[in-house]
Amino acid sequence: MTADRTRLDAHIAALDAPEGLKTVLTVAAATCADISRVVAGGALAGALGASGQINVQDEEQKKLDVMTNDMLTDALLASPAVAGVASEEMDEVQPAAHSTGEYLVLFDPLDGSSNIDINAMVGTIVSVLKSATPTPTEADFMQPGRNQVAAIYALYGPQTMLVLTTGAGVKGFTLSNDGDWILTHDDIAISPDTKEFAINMSNLRHWSGPVQTYIGDLLKGADGPRGKNFNMRWVAAMVADVHRILMRGGVFLYPWDKREPNKPGKLRLMYEGNPMAFLVEQAGGKATTDGVQAILDVQPEHLHQRIPVALGSANEIDAYPGV
Ligand SMILES: O=P(O)(O)OC[C@H]1O[C@](O)(COP(=O)(O)O)[C@@H](O)[C@@H]1O
Ligand SMILES: [Mg+2]
Ligand SMILES: [Mg+2]
After folding, report:
1. By three-state DSSP, how is residue 300 classified?
2. Which ligand 1 atom is at minimum distance from the Cα of 271?
3. Each residue of 25-39: pLDDT tens digit?
4. Cα–Cα distance between 122 and 238 in angstroms, integer?
5. Domain 196-319 - what CATH class?
6. Distance in Å, CA 114 to ligand 1 centroid
7. Is residue 120 scored above 90 in pLDDT?
8. Distances in whole angstroms, Cα of residue 256 to Cα of each of 121, 208, 213, 266, 311
9. Pocket flag, ligand 1, residue 113 (CB < 6 Å)
10. What is the whole-number distance in angstroms between the Cα of residue 62 and the centre of ligand 1?
11. What's the 148 CA to ligand 1 centre distance in angstroms?
12. Ligand 1 pocket test: which of 72, 89, 114 has the largest number of ligand atoms within 8 Å of its C-beta?
């Protein structure tokens, strides 16, 4: 049934891109397919529960955070095309042992990891930058998201999907029973208008006044200033929330809040904000910190930097007041 469809390896082979980048994409996609099998195995794969370790973000790591981080790190660093990797789950960047690599790969190996023990959707997010040197240090990773040459997420849900951009639109592939990524979503585009938003409402009291007012206006529905009823969804895994927006529009908001002034938002610029912003912009949406500042133009200051995020349907992002 999938014989006449385009496979990811054929799509990658046909890309007008350097061979090294094609290798990176191939390795990342194969590892996401491997991760999907571990995720699907759940308790049978020994993949549930806490690892007993705390990561550099001061978060408790799940066993699967550690397993998936090791899988991506090992696979990518073994590739001659990779100069180094960085991950949400590792304190420092890891340069490759060889000196042939041309690419830096940054990843959130398991996004939405609090979902894993309840058998809800999780994902993997990957960002690819060109490296100025085959022996990179952390300074070489400090590039704005605009420099990305590729971004990928894999969504481990009822179907396992991989969504990819190399800067020429967004394509979605579904993992077949034979273990092949098959093109199922050509030319993904985000509708400019929406009636759906995603935000963790339990944080309402911590937001700035303008964000509270904006959300209050959405909740007033057809009788309020926006003159239409809005629906709300929150999967608690950015990959799944962004995937919904790529499929049917919407906005995803994780605003600045006043709890920890030194952490301007929850989401990580390098592993979550940048790759998702690249995919969203390539699909015709907007990805900002505050409705105006493009995430892709933020100059990173440190590896594990956090940022506020407002992304999705362009006209609704224009209506968002930020902080
Ligand atoms: O705890 P909250 O507010 O629901 O946060 C959910 C957000 O946190 C994240 O889970 C963070 O990702 P990790 O699981 O990779 O730490 C996002 O995917 C998601 O959007
Ligand atoms: Mg995450
Ligand atoms: Mg994670």
Report:
1. coil
2. 15
3. 999 999 999 999 999
4. 8
5. alpha beta
6. 8
7. yes
8. 25, 8, 14, 8, 14
9. yes
10. 13
11. 23
12. 114
8 A C-beta contact, residue 87 and residue 61: no
Reported as a single tens digit per residue, the pLDDT across 205-264 is 999 999 999 999 999 999 999 999 999 999 999 999 999 999 999 999 999 999 987 788
Residue 54, burial from CB neighbour count under 10 angstroms (0-12, 13-18, 19+): exposed
- In short, whether 147's Cβ falls inside 6 Å of ligand 1 is no
CATH code for residues 8-185: 3.30.540.10
Q: What is the ipTM of this complex?
A: 0.98
Q: How far is the CA of 70 from the centre of ligand 2 (A)?
A: 16
Distance CA 82, CA 105 (A): 7
**Per-residue pLDDT averaged across 171-180, rounded?**
97
Domain boundaries, the chain: 8-185, 196-319
pLDDT tens digit sequence for 252-302: 999 999 998 778 889 999 999 999 999 999 999 999 999 999 999 999 999
